[in-house]
Specification:
This protein is α/β, with parallel strands linked by helices. Helix content is 44%, strand content 15%.
């Protein structure tokens, strides 16, 4: 099938490359010429494992252009993958969706064939029908569903795992309102992917994406609240409590007598909070949507609040011990919002940096991938180190922010010999409490 993918950010480029890998002919559309040129030279514009190999393998079926009209004319189905960032008021900014759907409508006016438009960008319920379909109909003077098709097909791509998630999804959710659109989408995905096709309407599919991310972020904030409570109880460690709780076979089923340890339990662990380009933005969008529509979203509002206060909650604890940060050197182990990515968007590290700068601390920061992005944001306000051991030299406090494997390799003796005052705050509960406490002052999330 001939597909156009509009917007070549994270989701667009990975989606395009994966469709090309599955044998479809894909043209990616982006208004930035430098991005288009790079894709046409098989150069990924984002850092994602396996993407370059995929682009190389399917280079004959993957192209890019800045010409949206030509792409619409030449393809039978278009995926909208533009950004839906947070606006200044904390809600969803749909301006790119609005612009693109109008442009598609204008292009379709001149096209003499039925064309299908699928929204993949994360949008609040009703957007696909009320905004995208409406704009296309208004601009093209075509009627839905006779003149064109519409669908919503959410992505569940994790950064760092996006290619695998996209080639072998656990489910493919197809939200449609008419038979012809559904038939087209089934044809596109049908025999090329092993995953189950889940068929529903567009609003449900739009909602599924938010609920999925809301559930996972709720587990993280829940665990952080439990950590806060346990920190008030002498002799209790939230890590141990949650470990025992997650042995409940309803959370962690057994197979042949052994725990299966499903991934869900890794979200049930106290830490520095969640970040990234999705969880924080999606929570804001769905709570704003709820408020606007007269629905109560107290829990999700609090999930977001707990997360925003996370670094301050941790800093307040450390401050009780350190008293003043003035002139002290603090080493942040990690800048990325999670390991195996260079992405620092909404990273907990940024919250720590802001709080520490306000307190006049000197900040050393180290990260295997995300230092360039951090430099771009903070320039000379911080000191940057590729080598974590150099970053620890002479420090009065180290805070483990990101669960990178290389940080796990730093032995307790190294912390104590390198630092001026060997005080480690384990913000991810990555280190062995007993082993590290024997050699240095070890503080962490979830215990006194
Ligand atoms: C997320 C969703 O997982 C994905 O389905 C959606 O389409 C986009 O948003 P991503 O932001 O890449 O993907 O990150 P994810 O790996 O889900 O991590 C989100 C947050 O959860 C991070 O802050 C991370 O540190 C935390 N997390 C992740 C955990 O606490 N435990 C884990 O096991 C994984």
């Amino acid at each position: 099938m001939k597909i156009s993918v509009i917007g070549t950010g994270y989701v667009g480029l990975v989606t395009g490359a994966c469709f090309a890998e599955k044998g479809h002919n894909v043209v990616c559309v982006d208004m930035r010429k430098e991005i288009v040129d790079k894709i046409n030279k098989n150069m990924p514009t984002i850092h994602e494992p396996g993407l370059k190999e995929l682009m190389d393998k399917s280079k004959d079926r993957l192209h890019a252009t800045t010409d949206l009209t030509a792409a619409i004319m030449d393809t039978e189905i278009s995926f909208i993958c533009v950004g839906t960032p947070m606006n200044k008021k904390g809600g969803i900014d749909l301006s790119q969706i609005i612009d693109v759907s109008k442009s598609i409508g204008k292009a379709l006016k001149a096209k003499n064939a039925w064309h299908m438009v699928v929204v993949k960008s994360t949008v609040v319920p009703g957007t696909t029908i009320n905004i995208v379909a409406k704009n296309i109909a208004d601009e093209s003077k075509l009627r839905f569903p006779e003149g064109f098709g519409i669908g919503f097909n959410p992505e569940f791509l994790r950064e760092g795992n996006a290619v695998v998630d996209s080639l072998s999804p656990d489910r493919i959710v197809l939200g449609t309102e008419d038979d012809k659109s559904l038939k087209k989408l089934k044809l596109l995905y049908g025999d090329k992917f092993e995953a189950q096709l889940v068929l529903t309407n567009t609003r449900t599919a739009e909602m599924v994406k938010y609920v999925n991310n809301s559930l996972l972020s709720t587990l993280i904030s829940f665990s952080n609240e439990i950590a806060n409570i346990c920190e008030a109880v002498p002799g209790v460690d939230a890590d141990e409590v949650l470990q025992i709780v997650t042995m409940d076979s309803r959370i962690n089923p057994r197979h042949e007598g052994k725990l299966t340890n499903p991934q869900i339990i890794t979200y049930l662990r106290g830490g520095c909070g969640f970040g990234g380009s999705c969880f924080p933005k999606d929570l804001k969008a769905i709570t704003e949507y709820a408020n606007k529509n007269g629905a109560d979203a107290k829990l999700l509002t609090e999930v977001d609040n707990i997360n925003r206060q996370r670094a301050l909650t941790i800093m307040t604890r450390i401050e009780k011990r350190i008293k003043r940060f003035d002139g002290k050197t603090v080493t942040l182990l990690g800048a990325a919002f999670k390991p195996d990515t260079d992405d620092i968007r909404e990273s907990p590290a940024l919250h720590f940096i802001e709080l520490l700068l306000k307190r006049n601390a000197k900040i050393n920061i180290t990260d295997p991938e995300a230092l360039n992005n951090t430099k771009r944001l903070y320039g000379r306000k911080l000191r940057y180190f590729d080598d974590p051991r150099k970053a620890l030299k002479g420090a009065d406090l180290a805070i483990l922010v990101t669960r990178w494997k290389v940080f796990a390799e730093i032995k307790p003796q190294e912390f104590s010999s390198l630092m001026r005052t060997p005080l480690l705050f384990d913000g991810r509960r990555m280190y062995d409490k007993k082993a590290y406490s024997d050699h240095l002052e070890y503080m962490g999330v979830g215990f006194q």
